[in-house]
Amino acid sequence: MKARQKRMLFVGVAILGVGVAASLALSALQSNIAYFFSPSQVHAGEHPTDAVFRVGGLVVEDTLARQEDGLTVRFDVTDNAKTVPVSYTGILPDLFGEGQGVVAKGRIGTDGVFYADEVLAKHDESYMPPEVQDTLQTAHVEGVIDAAGEAGDTAARTLSQ
Amino acid sequence: MIPELGHFALILALLLAVVQAIFPLAGSLARSGAAGGSGNRPWMAMARPLAYGQLTMLIVAFAALTQAFMTSDFSVLYVANHSNSLLPDIYKVSAVWGGHEGSLLLWVLMMAAWGAAVAAFSKNLPLPVVARVIAVQGMIAVGFLLFMLLTSNPFERIFPVPQEGRDLNPLLQDPGLAIHPPMLYMGYVGFSVAFSFAVAALLGGRLDAAWARWSRPWTTVAWVFLTIGIMLGSWWAYYELGWGGWWFWDPVENASLMPWLIGTALIHSLAVTEKRAAFKSWTVLLAICAFSLSLLGTFLVRSGVLTSVHAFATDPERGLFILLFLCIVVGGSLALYAWRAPEVSDGGRFSLLSRESALLGNNLLFVAFTVLVLFGTLAPLIYEAFNWGKISVGFPWFNKMFLALAPFLAILLGLGPATRWKRDEPARLIRSLWWALALSVAVLALSALPILGDGDLWVPVGLALAAWLLFSHAAIVRERVKNKGGLTHFGRAVLADLRGGGRSFYGMVTAHIGVAVFIVGVTMVSNYQLEEDVRMSPGDSHDIAAYRFEFLGAQQVPGPNYLAQRGEFKVYRGDREIARLFPEKRAYLGGGMPMTEAAIDPGLFRDIYVSLGEPVGNDGDWALRLYYKPFVRWIWLGAILMAIGGTLAVSDPRYRSARVRAGAKAGAGDKAPATA
To answer: What is the ipTM of this complex?
Structure first.
């Protein structure tokens, strides 16, 4: 084999190796990512029923309740349009609180409750996870459009009467 | 008045940086016809004083900000946001870098310090090289100083002046975190020196063994700082966040890991470039990448584009600026690389079985690690950009990827230093390493036997790899000492070698043993740790591993600037009381944010760890976390050994004398083309 052929062979093997490694890494990634859904999206049924995903928004005031065992907590998460009940067993992060932004990771049960096995903590009081910020903004914008639409409808109806 | 002085010093520093970026470089590239030398000497000679001036200005600015913190001058916005008159003095000092603006000031201060260090310790380098390196440092400083002055001025005033500051984030009120950012920044910024050397070499068109020898100690020192910085961060997260984990694959952690991985590849490839004059353009590329990844890390942390537990409240404008700066640095240096690197001939042929091959393997593996971490970290951004949804990548993926590559790296790590440069004989290699291999196979068999059939073989594999590293390095040391004729007085021979030119060799061995220690720690803690969340009433006991935790209840205790609920635990092993632990839940007076302070009984072979969750019910019950962490200290011990190894390598007297020789040679070489 000439040096040139050898080099081509080497490059070929290298490309093949990198390709295989990359596809393995990507397929492993597919089973390890968690998509994010807002409470409105969960209500619309866009979430997966058999996979781990994340849901986020604000913790609704006065919904944080501790169950009998002392370790399981229930709270509602809202994007100011829809809410999703969340259940979590374990110790909540320090900055968790009613009215605060949270992102929970877990699965949804057949009873419609989101069973979280991880609740995102943060380092800074004024920090808001970007997903939550987006969610609130989207819900707010849609809410405004809905309200405007309804107002328009009412106006139209009033006129036609 | 003093904050304005600081602000003024910053502006002066920027002006100096602009001069520093232009004149020494222009001087070094100019072809003056004047007697003998190339370049404009007076312009090049400006480099050193400018570097010192830069450092002086930034020291003044930093001192001004520190003074504002010490006197609790809340008319300065940054102080009002990050301090409080109740804050203990030591944390008033660390609060200087507790927020975005101050940490940037620390960053530029350290960069100026590195620049001044290059100026001071480069007496043996030819002047054009020094001028170019310091000019490149000046360019980076211009970027950062502009960034500070335009978007994040720490000296901005606030009116009306608040009565009280908002307090430092309680998580940062901790000795570990007071020194973690300076160490980490020293590492990040230190790679800017390697970067400057690389760019200077590209500009000058001279890439050779001498260049590698100059930039090698600087790179190693930066790597040592980064190692310690990452280790402190991991240790801090372990005890301060109250989750008991030591690495979370969080974007911000990854941001510090990526430069470290590439930096590790860089110090190895620099070794090849210095010894064999091979891998030259590759080494330069790594040096560019290491610093670019440091900048990318800064961007990820400061822009808030990624969801992270570390994320600070952020500002999109700042993110944009850093992104722009990143593009200029990466784009500019890569363009220069593409333009100049092809001119660099890659000398030094080597056969398949040689130390060059082993180090090439090391480099490829580290680059693969980095690409994986980079991809995993940026995947959420990629998905979002293509509208595939908002995702997060779970840490099991990162773990899997590392576990897939780590064994190869560990095997190579034992082989590499035993192999000879250029070409080696398989028979010779087997002769010197067979017993190390036999011993590690024995470890594999012994540790696999009791758990055979249980399926998970990671523990025996991890232990066998650690054993392989330990024994192969023992064989390598034996070989070296034998060649020096001192096998009968092993200890004395090693000591003599350490006094002579053997320090970088033993530094390498120490760092590699650190890897073995690290592997043992990771293997043991990930497979045998126990974690339980429990609810306990005062007087309750709970068993974990061989330990019994007795909860005595919690009381309110005042601290200097907080009120704490302090729990009390007795830990028994059998009937013997081995520790009393006092975990706390603190409420800081400055802000309403609570803070968990875990209590740990540390040990070389296990940690016992208790943290308070929250009170439950009205009878003094608490939700608690109880952990048993075997060998967790070995993880940080391994990192410390790596850092000691690096320090030992840099202290090698060979560098000093080699630098003198190289300087003399290079000086002669530099003159040649001018006279020609």
So the answer is: 0.78
